[in-house]
Amino acid sequence: MSDTETMWAPADDGRPPQRPDRKPMIAFLIVLVITLLAAAAMGGYLLGLRTAQSEQAAFPSSAAPTTTSSTPPTTTTTVAPTTTTSDTTTTTTTTTTAVVGTVRNATPAGSPVVLNVGYGVNLDSTQPNWDVVQSDDPNYFNDLRFDTQDTVNSSGRGFAPTQPNAGYADCAGATAYTPLLDINQILAGGAYCTTSPQGRFALVVFHPAVGGQLTFDLTVWEKTP
Predict the structure, then answer these.
(1) pLDDT of amino acid 132
(2) What is the pTM of this model?
(3) DSSP letters along the chain, please?
(4) Higher pLDDT, 115 or 68
């Protein structure tokens, strides 16, 4: 008889043999399955936790910086009051009085005035050529004019004989004036004081007449009170 046959052989008491009790085995299997499932779940949890930690270590999260907004400081500007100062400007007019003997205009040394007949000069001029002009109009009269080949005219007091080196005081004190000079008075040269229409004193030093021209040196002083 085989083992199977022996297992299922009827008992001696004539009762049919009982099947083995499988409940403990089933309970064991259930517990084993629950344990395995729990172990699997725990293992999966641990594996996921470890993976998350690895990813966090590999890719650290960058937290956005916290921006603190501070209230800007209040600037107080103090404006100084504007002070308007009224300055009173006093204009002083100074009148310069010419010093006695101040030369207004004079011919340079070696450059005398040369006049042809009919030409004249302006004794009050400050120009180097004394504004020499020519005019045949009898109503036009220069301060000192070579009128004809025989006469020299003056629009001022006339001519007063003096020295070639005469100064302002000499001409200011001269009194022997004649209204005009003729050619005989100036052929050999000569010095004369004269005046301009504006009252300035002048010294005329004639050179000997050459070729029908009138040649002379001229000095004019500023007018003084």
Answers:
(1) 83
(2) 0.55
(3) --HHHHHTSPPTTSPPPPPPP-HHHHHHHHHHHHHHHHHHHHHHHHHHHHHHHHHHHHS---PPPPP--PPPPPP-PPPPPP------PPP---PPPPPTT-EEEEPPTT--EEE-TTEEE-TT--STTTT-EE---TT---SEE--SSSEEEESSS-BEEE-TT--HHHHHH----BSEEEHHHHTT-EEEEEE-TTS-EEEEEEPPPBTTBEEEEEEEEPP--
(4) 115
